[in-house]
Amino acid sequence: MELFQYPYMQRALIAALVIGLAAPALGIYLVQRRLALIGDGIGHVALTGVGAGLLLNRSPVLVAVIVATLGAIAIELVRSRGRTSGDLALALLFYGGIAGGVMLVGLSHSPSANLNAYLFGSLTTISPTDLTTIVVLGVVILVAMLVLRPALFAVSHDEEYARVSGLPVRTLNMLIAITTAVTVTIAMRAVGVLLISALMVVPVASAQQVTRGFRSTMTAAMALGLFAAGSGVWVAANADTAPGASVVLMAIASFLVIALAAAGWRVLRRRRVPAAAPAAPEPHEVLIG
């Protein structure tokens, strides 16, 4: 615990906890919409923003937010049209994003152009400015996901029903896409663009093993995300491992423990329930002819 006396470790812990709360709060809507891996695609696009920020000598995180938001809007437009060419367009956007990011980072010749810090995260190098950006945007995402929960759930569960109910479906879809882009970009320095999807999805999958209602699943997922973030930073500080990878591995370990415990509980419940006794046969009527 002595390491947490240093300011850089305190910033790392705060950033991880904020992202650990915000990512599952958003991820539950992505899982409901069967878009669990969209964070990976937006992360590829965000790398172009990182490269552009380094090349223009601007904040890579803020430029990545703008570029990823534009990419998320494009993804949502392609998805909403539902054309067969949509998958091809998304693939071009994703692969073009990561290729453009690598090229722009190379052209920037910046002494701080460490691509691994954005691919896999670098919690211990988060500056006070980065921390402020992460906290402010993370709180905005968290508040939006909680306040708009009924409307977002309706859109994620059944768009046609939500449209008939008078909800602004297109606006809400755009909100989910934009908040996904913002979440991915603020989490780049914490867990990396290649690992952020895990923090969005794995706590939700873990919570679904033991909960039934949407609200209880969301609450449990946020609690598990908070645990994974805090314990992951602690493991990284004591074992000298990569913080982003440690956070994700703690989330996956939690999923395995919960899944095994839930499976064992179901087996015990089946054994405790006594087999129903066979019903007595009804007496046949005797017909006297």
UniProtKB/TrEMBL annotation:
> Where does the record say this protein resides?
Cell membrane; Membrane
> How does the record say this protein sits in the membrane?
Multi-pass membrane protein
Naming one, the record's GO cellular component terms include: ATP-binding cassette (ABC) transporter complex
Q: Give the chief site where it resides.
A: membrane
- What residue intervals traverse the membrane? 12-30, 37-55, 61-78, 90-111, 131-155, 190-207, 219-237, 243-265
Keywords on this record? Membrane, Transmembrane, Transmembrane helix, Transport
**A Pfam family annotated for this UniProt entry:** ABC-3
Annotated InterPro entries: ABC_BtuC-like, ABC_TroCD
- PANTHER family (UniProt xref): ABC-TRANSPORTER METAL-BINDING PROTEIN, METAL TRANSPORT SYSTEM MEMBRANE PROTEIN TM_0125-RELATED
Report the family membership: Belongs to the ABC-3 integral membrane protein family.
Official protein name in the record: Metal ABC transporter permease
Q: Which organism is it from?
A: Micromonospora musae
Its taxonomic path starts at: Bacteria, Bacillati, Actinomycetota, Actinomycetes, Micromonosporales
